[in-house]
Amino acid sequence: MTDLPGIAATLVSHEAAVRLAAFATVLGLMAVWEAARPRRVRLVTRRVRWTANLGIVALDAMVVRLVFPVAAVGMALIAAEQGWGLFNAVGVPFWAAALLSMVLLDLAIWAQHLVFHKVPWLWRLHRMHHTDLDFDVTTGLRFHPLEIVLSMAIKMAVIVALGAPAAAVVAFEVILNGLALFNHANVRLPAGIDAVLRRVIVTPDMHRVHHSVHRDETDSNYGFNLSVWDRLFGTYRAQPRDGHTGMTIGLDIFRSRRDLTLFRLLVQPFARA
What we know:
Oligomer: single chain
Distance between the termini: 59 Å
Number of domains: 1
Largest sheet: none
């Protein structure tokens, strides 16, 4: 019989290495794929955009370490020690607690994303993610540090409320980060494969709609991981009206190439627009 607790303990003890290896692998594979067979022609060179986008993710990582004494996994371990949260209070098998935690965490991320679109001051933070003039794997890393801090606080609150097992949190983070890189990649999947995959997970063609300049399309397809939430709550849109190669990526503001620099990205939430 598979030793799930043993596997879970190993996963948690090697969290940093597992997450870094998964991140680097998916980022590398997507970068090679979209360089070899891009879905869309780039408007801006990788050098210009990647310098800022990768700079943002490095800054985000530093800010999270400074603001939070423990990360999401650490909070799950504390909750387990203190007996906090639903699954620590109710006796359920480990596998059930882990599976339900991952699904409910994904729902929470989906709901948070929707709220960040609907609340004006939160949208000012989140819109930086949408002002990229191209759509590729690094767009999936492009979030303002203030949004990352708020997102981490929300995620930790959900982890404590659920009493999510630490191993489930590690697995969720790895899967979420990997799929966010995948579904932001500038790649083409065969139509049949895309149709099958998007019944379960968010594909690049599905999420690209969310980065359309048309606001009704921007306010759709909020998922990063499971595609079921958009279908369930009526925010699913199958295709962009202008087609994937003809659609305009971004917003109708901050369309200058100088807005793609790291400094400009950091001040965008405070700029008039």
